[in-house]
Amino acid sequence: MKLNGLASLALLACVGCAAPPVERAPAALLELYDSLAPDGALELELDRDGSFLELEADVPVESLPAAVRAAALAAYPGVTLTGAEREVQGGVLSWEVKFTHEGRGMELVIDTTGTVRETERELRASEAPLAVLQAAEAALPGSTLYSVESVTSAAGTVYHVKREKNGARYKFILDPTGKMLRKVREARAEIEIPLAD
């Protein structure tokens, strides 16, 4: 009788030790990985529940669709495109086009139809709302400012403030009043996926 009790206990323990089901990455991640420039980076932004918020992959500027390239040059005539990314945010595939305008780094997020969805612009600290800078600093005391960007879309303008502390970089996303919308720690990662045939 005692042996059956131990056997039952062992069986329950074994059930508790069963390997969890394997999660599958979204197809968009594999597609972005396959389009990645040889020296490019692949960025993943995840929520705490494990869901993907945003996926980005550096791609050659030459791979930009004609409608995307035309939209960027129509918005900022005469600029030289210096970088590009494919990205998926909210299930929408877009392109991020990078260039310098009036001495500032800028990025336009343009969907496949050529519609500009977002404009990102580097700012000097003196150009950002003081409440934004103070809230980011208060969120990570003892850190140093790395960069500030304004990000404007149909939803309005938010600010991305990056700060560094102890060798790590953090990004704070705030509204113009300094209300914290999201905070993340950026981390380097290595991703290995078998090559497509």
What's this model, at a glance?
By secondary structure, the protein is an alpha+beta fold. The chain is 22% helix and 42% strand. The longest helix is centred in the first third of the chain and has 15 residues.
What does this structure look like?
By secondary structure, the chain is of the alpha+beta class. It folds into two domains: 23-117, Nuclear Transport Factor 2, Chain: A, CATH 3.10.450.360; 124-188, Nuclear Transport Factor 2, Chain: A, CATH 3.10.450. Helix content is 22%, strand content 42%. The protein is built from four helices and ten strands, in the order ααββαββββαββββ. It has a ten-stranded antiparallel β-sheet with strand order 1-2-3-4-5-6-7-8-9-10, covered by helices on one side. The longest helix is centred in the N-terminal third of the chain and has 15 residues, at 2-16. The radius of gyration is 22 Å and the shape is globular. It starts with a helix and ends in an 11-residue tail after the last strand. Mean pLDDT is 88; it is low at 1-16.
What descriptors fit this protein?
alpha+beta, Nuclear Transport Factor 2, Chain: A, 2 domains, 197 residues, ten-stranded antiparallel β-sheet, 4 helices, globular
At CATH level 2, the architecture of the largest domain is Roll
- Count of individual beta strands: 10
State the secondary-structure class.
alpha+beta
* Count of all domains: 2
Form type: globular
* Physical arrangement of strands within the biggest beta sheet: 1-2-3-4-5-6-7-8-9-10
> Which CATH C-level class of the largest domain is it?
Alpha Beta
Overall mean pLDDT stands at 88
The main β sheet shows up as:
10 strands, antiparallel
